[in-house]
Amino acid sequence: MTTLTTNARAIVAAHPDKAIPVVGQPQPRYSSDDPIYRAALQAALALGFIEIDAQCLALAWLAQSRRTGRFDPDVWPVEAVDFGLQTRGDGAQAFAACPARLGVYAVLPDAQWVGRMAQAGVPTLQLRFKSKDPQAVRREVRVAIEAVSAANRQRGARSLLFINDHWRETLEVLSGDASHLEFLGVHLGQEDMDAAAMASAFDTLRASGLRLGLSTHGYAEMKRAAALRPSYIAMGAVYPTTLKQMATAPQGPGRLAVYARLLHKAGYPGVAIGGISAAELPVIRATGVGSLAVVRAITAEANPEEAAAQLMAAWDA
Hints:
By secondary structure, the chain is an alpha/beta fold. The protein is built from 14 helices and eight strands. The protein has an eight-stranded parallel sheet with strand order 7-6-5-4-3-2-1-8.
């Protein structure tokens, strides 16, 4: 690692909560001779940011310094304009809106679980059904949508439902009843955005009226997701998780706090996800993020309905 400049050391010293273990011996690859950019890039790498995110952060720190007329190592960049991050806004190019705060967000393995948690009043639900059987997928998507629709009518409330990955099947079910648009969306990951077929699919999804949630794992992916102006952006993994192989290390609550502020200023509801249990809820809530996604904090409990009620009460306190 390059010897840090005075300004780089000042940034690192001011933001220990953003640090995670550094992998290897990263060497900064400069694209500018500006001393603020170079110091911020050094600091970001020293704090454990991967190179592509370190570059985003360094350019943002330079933009912030030019915009404000001064370099301040204590002020972490959180303005969309400094990152060149597309704000959500309104109009034809933005996906359908979500509430600014999505609250407790239960990620569930099948339609039966979705129905149970809809009846329990969990405000945001995700069907993450893993199967290579197209018929089974269509069945689970249809049953989950019908279950949430029924629960919403019975409770006189509206839980939102997002279908993970299976956007084609969601469109098929939606074609039979446009009233589902009141509560329905899809959630996709970065790998879905890489698929060649998705270039036109995002236009189709936007035109359908479905909401769209996207997963991100750092600044570069947040910028990429924001270019689509989705309904919300998820950030993670906050803590270690065994439920999914992650390409990046856990980000921690310190980074989550500045990610959440950036997204809020850009008009995106934010969702914290990854390894979050009831014990971490107060820390996650303190970051200012509007939602926390949980899996085992509900599904692994002896009384899932009670666990969900306690999570909701603690989050809304």
